[in-house]
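Predict fold of Transposase IS4-like domain-containing protein; 397 aa.
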Amino acid sequence: MDTNGIRVKDLLNYLPAPLLDQLAQATQVDYQVKKLHGKLLFQLLLYGVLTTTRLSLNVLVAVLDSLCFRTFAGLKPDFQTRRNSLADRLAHVQVAYFEQLLQATTALFRRHFPNDQKRPYRINCFDSTTVSCSSKLLAMGMVNGIKPKDESKRLKQIKFTIGFDGLTVSACDLYTQQTYLAEDQALGETIRQSSLQEDEVGVFDRGLKKRKTFRLFSEQGRLFVTRLNSTTMYVPVAVFTSSQGRRTATLELLSDQMVYLYCNGNVLRFPFRLITARSRQSSETLFFLTNLFALPAKEVTAIYRQRWEIECFFRFLKQELNFTHLLSRTTNGIQVTVYITLIAAMLILVYRKLNQMSGFKLVKLRFEQELQTDIIKEIVRLCQGKHQLVDRLVPSG
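Predicted 3D structure, encoded as tokens:
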């Protein structure tokens, strides 16, 4: 792994044109398309997410006409498109192209920039976030709570359930059906379909609480750590005494047991590990459930503490990458935008990590400034240092 920092242009080279072209051919994203090819749409949305504060179709058209973007994408001066064409392309483009780009980015970054978690397991945190929009603007989506009498005030929600390991996105699902309003459904489905490996642990909060789902994870070989409510009923099976009375920086460990959980009033005779601890700050009693039996109890609780990383990630997406703003009102367009936003987020996070920077706002600004500087250098090169030639790079009229 590079420990001497990385430049934006070198980071973008991990998504080279041959990779974009290869995925375009594999997914047939450009079948019967003459102008707005998948590669161009990816470049346009990625550039827009990285350099603007609030994307819209009108903003994207303006970005498309800008000298900086045309240089970034290598567009010919006479290339033009309209807002309606862009909206229609977003609504009908092959989503698989962008989904596979997200997966390829994750795989490349995991290989070249491994997360230095000093544990025997890679930690993947799973959680959901919702985006709300007026039902007048959004046809699909879930309704939370009592429907208002005035339909114009009714809000629709879209749920995004994401897996995140601190640097890369391991899973991303969009849910619009009412049944997925419950986290048991959304989180459970995403984790079941995720590609967790034997050396990875899924971490999630108390929103997922179905006992049969816990059992299914174990049967599938999916390791997990979660928390349970204090009212949880269980049957002790065995006691591990080595952890009792020990302390961590934030917890006092009270008990460490193998237990059976109750499921719909009956005992589910499947072994889980239940670690009980008391917060040293608030004195609250906490219950940690896992199917990891080999690790010490304090390491299991430390794994759960890593869940805060996905909370920070969601905050970063919403505050710096405008994740809650829906560029498109179609399921297709929303998925495409989300996938590209997550790719942009990973680019910034890797840039932040390798350049040993902190925070998010200034890191994004530094990333954008360096990108623009590289583009300006390319413009100077194309014009051979002669400002009179700049007009040849932009559309006339």
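The chain has a mean pLDDT of 90.
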